């Protein structure tokens, strides 16, 4: 978690750093800070709260003025959010740095440093690296970095200023992501591309234990021995507009509206001769034919996309699929056999638990397939097979378009699997694929059709303490995501329940006026779902029903009905996701919450 940036160039460094940090606030936003070389000295400004709080503080107390510096936006792990615990941290007189990641052995190191007479100001693990580096520094930055890295354990990306190296900025990483951007007469470091895209789309990906030196002469790379490294310059295929709000009030709303394009861009290149074709991603019919057990491992929304995948793959290809939460999978000694397929789904490609789960699966002899949005991320680089989703940058913490493209890939895989296993013939596979290609158009229409209804209906959720999402089959899989969306941004408790399971306990929660969102798009299960809806309605629930436009339901079944177009039953979650996203969005807006940056959360969870 946390976002780091650095700048070397001719522009006003503080301005560039704050601007770049704004694009990284999705990674953490409980405090922020910058350090800039000003008249030969490192000047630091930091503050608890949002970036704007830092800006206000600098207006009052002075903005560091110079052309070389580093910045940080924090999601607290060690020590409460406070100005003292904010980065940058100085390790003494010699070193000031920013850090993204976790230093696992910080306690031992801190004790050793205290025994050497070092005095700590903050509760952070970061200050331990700063102090250690300061202690190890005897005039040679590379030697000091090497010595320090040999002592620290964990994940980190560091941006470092040495007080006696006024024209230089050093960066190094292990596990945590870091890129080095190259513009005209200026260079940058950043945790992610959106931070620098306004200035340049050209960047290098720093690899583990590589050191970058940024100065007015440009950028150079070396390993821990100081040996020069040549690296490949990459070009980001995003533009600045893609990373900004484009006229929408919130990134989340913009990203909901971007879903039709995101799905189209993701699936179109993967269809050849009217059939799914994932050969370029390393996934062939031959590979799939021999797979008899699949695990889908992920966190949060990505895991919910896996739940949709499970229903689709099991139904069509008749291959068993276990969906696992990555943080459980990695510690429960999973029963993986050589040749099993482990699919890792991740928007960021940097989620610590998902990455660790993938490494474990590889070690146990499984084939790994990553479905990732962020290009060049760790999960993308380490997987045996890789399908990139092309959602573009997702900035809102609440995932919408990333989920949509993840499930679109689940369908492609499901169809291909079923064909490879001989469970459907080519004609059926073509038919399903054709319907999938029509989804972007339906999505566009659905967003417009249901927007107003969702905004109106959301007003009935504002005062709820708790609510339930219910559904059967794929509707249940989708309900999980609907429920997560609502709770993370509205702060209203909710739970998704398999509709048929309610009467085994949970129905006792229903009281007069409690909202229940029922998803009933699976026509084959409709009668059963309607019976379950009647059970909650009879106990006083206010039912909001999401169903297709053709279903006939008695007028007393639901209090509000959101109708969506009817397409192939197994593809209905793609359309039904939209009203669930919009209900969550408008509930959050009407409750006056910070939709894009909900409390206690961060976009990219690179810590356990
Ligand atoms: O980057 P990832 O897809 O690996 O992230 C996994 C979860 O942290 C993420 O999906 C999270 O649940 C969403 N932000 C919720 O909207």
Give the SSE layout.
Blueprint: E1 3-8, H1 13-22, E2 31-38, E3 41-48, H2 51-61, E4 68-74, E5 89-90, E6 95-103, H3 106-115, H4 126-136, H5 141-151, E7 154-162, E8 169-174, E9 179-183, E10 186-190, E11 202-205, E12 211-215, E13 218-222, E14 228-229, E15 234-235, H6 251-257, H7 259-267, E16 271-272, E17 275-276, H8 285-289, E18 294-298, H9 300-317, E19 321-325, H10 326-329, E20 341-346, H11 352-363, E21 367-372, H12 378-382, E22 385-388, H13 401-420, H14 426-458, E23 466-471, H15 474-490, E24 493-498, E25 515-520, H16 526-537, E26 542-548, E27 560-564, H17 572-590
Parallel strand pairs: 18-19, 18-20, 20-21, 21-22, 23-24, 23-25, 25-26, 26-27
Antiparallel strand pairs: 1-4, 1-10, 2-3, 2-4, 5-6, 6-7, 7-8, 8-12, 9-10, 9-11, 11-15, 12-13, 13-14, 16-17
Could you walk me through the main structural features you see in this protein, from its secondary elements to its overall organization?
With 608 residues, the protein is α/β, with parallel strands linked by helices. The chain is built from 17 helices and 27 strands. Strands 3-2-4-1-10-9-11-15 form an eight-stranded antiparallel β-sheet, covered by helices on one side. Strand 16 and strand 17 form a beta hairpin. Helix 9 (300-317) packs parallel to helix 13 and helix 13 runs antiparallel to helix 14. The mean pLDDT is 94. Residues 299-302, 346-348, 351, 354, 397-399, 484, 488, 604-605 line the site of 5-amino-5-deoxy-1-O-phosphono-D-mannitol. Residues 299-302, 346-348, 351, 354, 397-399, 484, 488, 604-605 line the site of 5-amino-5-deoxy-1-O-phosphono-D-mannitol (M6R).
């Amino acid at each position: 978690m946390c976002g780091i940036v650095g700048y070397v160039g001719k522009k006003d460094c503080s301005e560039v750093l704050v601007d770049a940090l704004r694009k990284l606030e999705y990674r953490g936003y409980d405090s922020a800070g910058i350090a800039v070389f000003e008249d030969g000295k490192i000047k630091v400004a930091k503050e608890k709260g949002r970036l704007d709080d830092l800006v206000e503080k600098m207006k009052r107390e002075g903005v560091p003025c110079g052309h070389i510096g580093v910045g940080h936006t924090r999601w607290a792990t060690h020590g409460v959010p406070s100005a003292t615990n904010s980065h940058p941290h100085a390790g003494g007189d010699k070193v000031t740095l920013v850090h993204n990641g976790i230093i696992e052995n910080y306690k031992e190191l801190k004790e050793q440093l205290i025994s050497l007479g070092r005095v700590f100001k903050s509760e952070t693990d970061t200050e331990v690296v700063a102090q250690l580096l300061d202690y190890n520094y005897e005039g040679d930055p590379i030697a000091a970095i090497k010595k320090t890295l040999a002592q620290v354990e964990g994940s980190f990306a560091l941006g470092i200023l040495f007080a006696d190296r006024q024209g230089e900025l050093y960066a190094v990483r292990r596990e945590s992501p870091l890129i080095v951007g190259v513009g005209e007469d200026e260079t940058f470091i950043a945790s992610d591309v959106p931070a620098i895209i306004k200035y340049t789309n050209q960047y290098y990906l720093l690899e583990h234990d590589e050191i970058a030196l940024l100065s007015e002469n440009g950028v150079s790379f070396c390993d821990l021995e100081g040996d020069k490294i040549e690296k490949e310059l990459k070009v980001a295929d995003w533009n600045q507009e893609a990373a900004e709000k484009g006229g929408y009030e919130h990134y989340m709303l913009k990203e909901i509206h971007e879903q039709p394009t995101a799905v189209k861009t993701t699936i179109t290149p993967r269809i050849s001769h009217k059939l799914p074709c994932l050969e370029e991603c390393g996934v062939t019919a031959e590979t799939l034919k021999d797979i008899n057990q699949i695990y889908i491992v992920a966190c949060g929304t990505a895991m919910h996309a896996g739940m949709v995948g499970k229903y689709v793959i099991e139904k069509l290809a008749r291959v068993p699929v276990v969906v696992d939460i990555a943080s459980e999978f990695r510690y429960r000694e999973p029963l993986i056999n050589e040749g099993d397929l482990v699919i890792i789904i991740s928007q960021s490609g940097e989620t610590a638990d998902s990455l660790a789960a993938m490494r474990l699966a590889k070690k146990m002899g499984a084939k790994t397939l990553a479905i990732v949005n962020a290009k060049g991320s760790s999960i993308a680089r380490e997987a045996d097979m890789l399908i990139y989703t092309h959602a573009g940058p997702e900035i809102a913490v609440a995932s919408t378009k990333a989920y949509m493209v993840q499930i679109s890939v689940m369908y492609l895989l499901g169809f291909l699997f079923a064909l490879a296993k001989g469970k459907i013939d080519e004609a059926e596979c073509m038919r399903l694929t054709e319907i999938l290609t029509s989804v972007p158009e339906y999505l566009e229409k659905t967003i417009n059709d249901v927007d107003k209804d969702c905004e109106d209906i959301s007003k009935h959720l504002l005062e709820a303490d708790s609510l339930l999402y219910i559904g059967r089959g794929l509707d249940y899989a989708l309900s999980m995501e609907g429920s997560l969306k609502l709770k993370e941004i509205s702060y209203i408790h909710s739970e998704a329940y398999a509709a048929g399971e309610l009467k085994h306990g949970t129905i006792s929660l229903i009281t007069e006026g409690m909202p229940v969102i029922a998803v009933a798009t699976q026509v084959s299960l409709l009668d059963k779902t309607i019976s379950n809806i009647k059970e909650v309605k009879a106990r006083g629930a206010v039912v909001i029903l999401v169903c297709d436009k053709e279903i006939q339901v008695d007028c007393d079944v639901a209090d509000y009905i959101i109708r969506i177009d009817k397409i192939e039953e197994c593809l209905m979650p793609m359309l039904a996701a939209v009203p669930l996203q919009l209900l969550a969005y408008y509930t959050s807006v009407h409750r006056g919450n910070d939709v894009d940056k909900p409390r206690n959360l961060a976009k990219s969870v690179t810590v356990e």
